[in-house]
């Protein structure tokens, strides 16, 4: 029992793609038994008791079950080969082939004993289940044209052994037609399943590549921003430092002035670097809302978003509300079995109000789970003069999270800070910082080295 539970846990912990792969394969292994079991029982019921027919019927059912069981590793390897994986079939084709020949010989013997009368129909349906796994394995590893030719030839050859067993021509024709039908049916089931698995794995690989490309693109963008922010400042700092060293003995006052400029530019660089890093850490409200809808929809929760004023909010307000959306979505997934979740953003009486409400609250649990997430949100909102409230919603088993942020003061301060930051960056790019004084009594060689340091 413990091994079964461990297997179930391992299956649940696998990715969705692996689960789809597993379910598809298991379905292909199970389908033949829906033919084998009922038709086997019917065959045993209809087989005459005299002449050894009942014994041959039992033997035929046993060989059919053996084909279905030993064919599972063969079909699994055929799926892997179809998906482009390098696998070895080993001796499984030989084992299944020998069992198939034994099954065919037993079927012919049974038909001969009972003079081709009562059990031919049951044997045909039984053959559909027996042939599914080996025929499906074959259709996965050969081209469709080769499989079609093999199906026609196999159907014709399969009818030949039944002629001496007393099967009339109409019965032989039926055997050939049923064989072709079995091959077409197996191809439509097994090969299409393999094709679907290939598409699923290709999509999964494409998503992985897309994620890696997104990370690489983000690294390039971050590196580009770092270069734009620090590149010029570091070049000017190097130039002024070199100039201050040369002026130290000739004009200490000018050297001190240059080092003061170096200190100021270093502080500006430090501030701009913090702005860049903070910009990458800040959350975006629109992105978080779209992400919340995708995550909740994937979890089976209908997510309704009413975002009227999101684009009009200051950057600081959008950032803190984005964190509220992120934490609220996490709480819905972690502490509720929600079927419906709504997120509403409004501007009312000089403040922004974000309301997140969901149903499916589990008995005996708080919406926030008692963790530090909501406490952290309250700290973020407090810095902007905002508040956060949580509690039961409007219906039974619902939970509501409400964040309020004053808009007027926050928006004014944010706009002023943004304008000041823009002016500072414009000055830095335009080179309006304190000019570099001309060196006093600098030789031509010194000037050449100074220019080279700025290149």
Automatic annotation (TrEMBL):
The chain crosses the membrane at residues 22-43, 55-75, 87-110, 122-141, 146-163, 169-190. Residues 429-448 have a biased composition (Low complexity). InterPro entries: HATPase_C_sf, Sensor_HK_TwoCompSys, Sig_transdc_His_kin_sub3_dim/P. One of its GO terms (cellular component) is membrane. It holds the Pfam family HisKA_3. Keywords: Kinase, Membrane, Transferase, Transmembrane, Transmembrane helix, Two-component regulatory system. CDD domains: HATPase_UhpB-NarQ-NarX-like (cd16917). It comes from the Bacteria. One of its GO terms (molecular function) is phosphorelay sensor kinase activity. Residues 218-285 form the Signal transduction histidine kinase subgroup 3 dimerisation and phosphoacceptor domain. Residues 408-455 are annotated as: Disordered. This is Histidine kinase. It comes from Streptomyces mashuensis. The lineage of its organism: Bacteria, Bacillati, Actinomycetota, Actinomycetes, Kitasatosporales.
């Amino acid at each position: 029992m413990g091994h079964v539970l461990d297997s179930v846990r391992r299956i649940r912990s696998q990715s969705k793609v692996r689960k789809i792969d597993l379910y598809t394969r298991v379905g292909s292994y199970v389908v033949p038994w829906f033919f084998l079991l009922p038709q086997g029982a019917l065959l045993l019921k209809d087989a005459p008791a005299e002449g050894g027919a009942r014994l041959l019927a039992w033997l035929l059912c046993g060989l059919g079950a053996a084909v279905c069981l030993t064919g599972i590793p063969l079909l699994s390897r055929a799926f892997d080969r179809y998906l482009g994986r390098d696998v070895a079939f080993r001796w499984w084709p030989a084992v299944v082939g020998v069992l198939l020949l034994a099954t065919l010989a037993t079927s012919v013997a049974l038909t001969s004993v009972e003079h081709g009368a009562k059990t031919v129909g049951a044997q045909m349906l039984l053959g559909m289940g027996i042939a599914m796994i080996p025929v499906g394995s074959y259709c996965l590893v050969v081209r469709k044209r080769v499989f079609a030719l093999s199906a026609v030839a196999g159907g014709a050859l399969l009818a030949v052994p039944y002629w001496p067993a007393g099967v009339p021509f109409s019965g032989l024709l039926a055997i050939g037609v049923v064989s072709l039908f079995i091959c077409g049916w197996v191809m439509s089931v097994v090969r299409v399943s393999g094709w679907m698995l290939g598409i699923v794995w290709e999509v999964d690989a494409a998503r992985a590549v897309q994620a890696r490309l997104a990370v690489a693109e983000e690294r390039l963008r971050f590196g580009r921003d770092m270069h734009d922010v620090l590149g010029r400042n570091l070049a000017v700092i190097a130039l002024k430092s070199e100039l201050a060293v040369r002026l130290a003995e000739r004009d200490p006052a000018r050297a001190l002035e240059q080092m003061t400029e170096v200190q100021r530019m270093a502080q500006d660089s430090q501030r701009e670097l913090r702005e860049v890093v903070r910009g990458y850490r800040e959350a975006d409200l629109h992105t978080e809302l779209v992400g919340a809808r995708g995550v909740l929809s994937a979890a089976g929760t209908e997510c309704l978003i009413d975002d009227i004023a999101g684009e009009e909010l200051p950057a600081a307000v959008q950032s803190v509300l984005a964190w509220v959306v992120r934490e609220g979505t996490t709480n819905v997934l972690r502490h509720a079995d929600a079927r419906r979740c709504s997120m509403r953003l409004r501007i009312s009486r000089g403040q922004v109000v974000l309301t997140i409400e969901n149903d499916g609250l589990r008995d005996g649990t708080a919406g926030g789970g008692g963790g530090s997430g909501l406490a952290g949100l309250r700290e973020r909102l407090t810095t902007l003069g905002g508040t956060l409230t949580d509690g039961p919603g409007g219906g039974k088993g619902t939970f509501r999270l409400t964040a309020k942020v004053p808009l007027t003061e926050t928006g004014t301060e944010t706009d002023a800070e943004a304008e000041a930051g823009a002016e500072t960056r414009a000055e830095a790019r335009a080179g309006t910082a304190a000019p570099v004084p001309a060196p006093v009594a600098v030789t031509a060689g010194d000037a050449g080295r100074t220019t080279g340091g700025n290149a």
